[in-house]
C-alpha cells in the first residue's frame, strides 16, 4: 500500500477545522490528534473507504483512512494548508463574546426592579382571510406556480390556524430584556435563517436588509407602480388611519378580481398578504409603511429582518403595557413554534427534499385545540431542555449570522421602528455548542420612527448590515459550556414566570384530555350558554322591535318638529302682517278706542237701516206706479178701441149723409181725442217718473252696497282692535 499525503481542499479545511477548534477549546487536542487524522490515499489495486467509529466524526465526500500521527505533524499540516483563512471560527467568536460579557456585563444587573406586569392580556385579533382564500383557490396552477416563483410560500400562511390559548401563553414568557422566549430553562427566538427558510422566497438577497426611505417616491407613486392604477384613482381611494395613509382591502380585492394583467394581479395579491397577515396593523387596510417595504422587494431586499423587528417590537409593547393587540405575523410565529415543539406535540416530519415546503407541512398538520391557556403556561414554566427540538428539521445551514458592523448583536430595522436580537443566545437552534453570549445594550436598542433622531440611527444600522459577521457552527462535544450553564443560572430576567418544580408534571399530564368531572361541568356550561344564547336572541328581537318603535317615534317627532317650524313661520308671518296693519291703521287715523268704534258702527248700521227702509218704500212706490201704468195702458187700449169704433161710426154716418149725426160724431171724436191726449200726457209723465225712480233705485242700491261694505270693514277692524286689546 502506497500512502500519499496531499494538501486539503477548501471544503476539507472547513470540515477538519470544526474538529480542530472544538478540540482546542475543550483541551482535548492531544486525544483528537491520536484519534483523528485524515489524508487521501490510493491503492494500486483499488480504493477503500473507512469512517471514524465516534458518533461525532465528520462525514467526508472522498475516500478517507484513519491513521495515527504526532501532534507536531498535525499542527504543521494545519499551518501549511492555511486552515483558518477566511471564516471566523467558533472558538474565536466564543472568546470575543465571553470577554465582552465580562467587560460590559449583562443586559440586566442584580437589583433590577421590573416594571412589567405579572400577566399580559394580549389580543391576536386578525383580519378575516376568507375572501383571500377564495381568490387563491380560484387561480389555476400556472398562476400559483408563478406566485411561488416570485413571492415564495406566502399563501400557506392563509391555512395556518391561530391557537389563541397557545399564543397568549407564549406571550407570558417573552423576555423583553433579551429579545427571546424564556421557557423554564430554555431560551428560544425566531432567527433570520429560520424565517428565511420558512418563507422560501427565491428573489430575496439574505444580506440586503430593508431600511426606511426618507426622500423616496410618494405613497401615491409607489401604489401606482405596484397596482397599475392611475394616480387620480389612488388619490380618490386613499384613506387615513391616524397619522398614516392607507388603502382599503376591498379596493385591492376588486382590483385583483378585475385586473387584466396577470403579473399585476399577483403583485396586488402578495401586497394584500403582507398588509393583512404579515403586518396587520390597520385591520382591512394596507398601511403605507407596508407598501414602502413591498415596493423594495423587486430590488432583492429581504423582508425577514423587518418581519422579526415588528414581531419583537409588538411583543415588547404588549409586555410593557400589560395588554394590547399583537400586530406582527402570528401565523409565522406559530409555525416557527410548532417546528421546535414537535416533541411536545408528538408530530413527526417527513424526509426533506429539494422542493420541501415547511410552511405547507405545518399548515396541513392537524393540531390539538383543546389545551387551555393555563395548561400551556404550566408546561412552559417547567419546560426541560430535552422537551424540544433545538434545531428545526428543515434548517440546513453551517453558518450563523451573529452580529452586524460594530453592534454586538444583530440590529433589525422594521417598517415602524427598530430593535435587535442576539443569535449567540440561541446557538443550539443551529445545532451548535452554546457558550456565554454578549447581550449588553439589547434592552436599549429599540426605537420608533416617531422618535426625532431616528434617521441617524437608521443610517447607522443600514451601514452595519453592509458589514455582517458570520461564524461556523460547532456540534462537537457537549451542547453547552460550563460557563454558559453558570451564567444562565444567575441571569436576571425581566418578570418571566419562574419554574415551579413542586407542581411539575409530565408533558402528557399537561396536555391530557380534560377529566370527566370537568367535562360534565363543561357540558353544563354549554347548556347554560345555549340558554343564554336563546335569551340573547329574544332580547335581540325585542331590541329590534324597540328599535322600530324608536324609529317610528323619531319619524313622528320629526313630523311634529316640521309642523312646529311651519307654525312658527306662520306666527312670524302673522307678526309681520300685524305690524304692517298697525302701521296702516296708524297712517289711516283708525287708531281709536273700542267705544267710539262701537258708536260709529251703530250709526252706520242705523244709516244702513234707514237706507234699506227708503229702498223698500221706493220699491213699494215703484210697484204702485207700475200698477197705475198698467191700468193706464189698459185704458189707452180701451180708448183706442173706442176711437176705432167712432171712426167706423163716422164712416157710417158719412154714408148716410146725415149732417147732424156727423157733427155729433165729430164733437164726440174731438172729445175723445182730447181725452186720449190727456191720457197720453199722463202716461208719459208716469213713464218719466218710473225712469226717475229706477235711476234713483240704482243710486240707492249703490249707496246701500257701499254702506254694507263700510259696516263689514269696520266690523273687521273692530274685531282686530279687540284682539289687540285682549
From TrEMBL:
Q: Which domain of life is it from?
A: Eukaryota
Q: Which Pfam families does UniProt cross-reference here?
A: DUF7745 (PF24924)
Q: Which UniProt keywords apply?
A: Coiled coil
Keyword Coiled coil attributed: yes
**Protein name per the record:** 227 kDa spindle and centromere-associated protein-like protein
Species name? Gossypium australe
Q: List each coiled-coil range.
A: 518-621
Can you give the residue ranges of the DUF7745 domain? 134-492
